[in-house]
Design goal:
- InterPro entries: LOTUS-like, OST-HTH/LOTUS_dom.
- Keywords: Differentiation.
- It holds the Pfam family OST-HTH.
- By secondary structure, this protein is α+β, with helices and mostly antiparallel strands.
- It has two domains: 70 residues, Nucleotidyltransferase, domain 5 (2-Layer Sandwich), CATH 3.30.420.610; 92 residues, Nucleotidyltransferase, domain 5, CATH 3.30.420.
- The protein has six helices and eight strands, in the order αβααββαβααββββ.
- The strands form three sheets. A three-stranded antiparallel sheet has the order 1-3-2.
- Strand 7 and strand 8 form a beta hairpin.
- Helix 4 crosses helix 5.
- The chain is elongated, with a radius of gyration of 19 Å.
Length: 173
């Protein structure tokens, strides 16, 4: 089971393991024990065709970023992987809502109800919810401004969307 060219199982394991870490950061020295604890099995590097853990981790640069040098190295998900994970979580949250939408002012509460944990934007590698939302393609979510609030929703089929006047997406009824 080689990683290059066909790594989805190991990539998914990495994402699942890292999302449970505070701010998605883990010292490299904690990787093997964390993997063993999380999956109740040994992470055998040789199963993936490598002889060193660092080589295996470096083989998935689209998912994992290695920060620092030597024994002080930290593992974190790449920006792309974090945005993809947030997008999946956001769509789950929106589908959890009866109206398939949530106002930004209600986002923290909706997140808690959906995932049974507090919303922490740092868990997705950003400092602001609006910055995260700006990373998601317009075809995936719709952002509208209603009264004094911003509303995030799942685009409706056949909905006419257009870029206009500095707003990311405007919806015309």
């Amino acid at each position: 089971m080689q990683v290059p060219g066909g790594e989805p199982p190991f990539s998914r394991e990495l994402i699942d393991l890292m999302k449970g870490q505070p701010c998605n950061l883990m010292p490299i020295s904690k990787f093997i024990p964390a993997y063993h604890h999380h999956y109740a099995k040994q992470c055998r590097v040789s199963d993936y065709g490598y002889s060193k853990l660092l080589e295996l981790l470096e083989a998935v640069p689209h998912v994992l970023q290695i920060l620092g040098m030597g024994t002080k190295r930290l593992l974190t998900l790449t920006h792309r992987a974090q945005v993809k994970r947030f997008t999946q979580d956001l769509l789950k949250l929106l589908k959890f809502q009866a109206s398939k939408q949530v106002a930004v002012t209600d986002f923290m509460q909706a997140y808690h109800w959906c995932f049974s944990r507090d919303w922490q934007v740092l868990d997705y590698g950003m400092c602001d919810l609006m910055d995260l939302l700006a990373e998601i393609p317009d075809t995936t979510i719709t952002i509208t401004h209603q009264d004094l609030d911003t509303v995030i929703s799942v685009p409706k089929r056949g909905e006419m969307r257009s870029l206009c006047m500095g707003l990311r997406v405007c919806t015309f009824w």
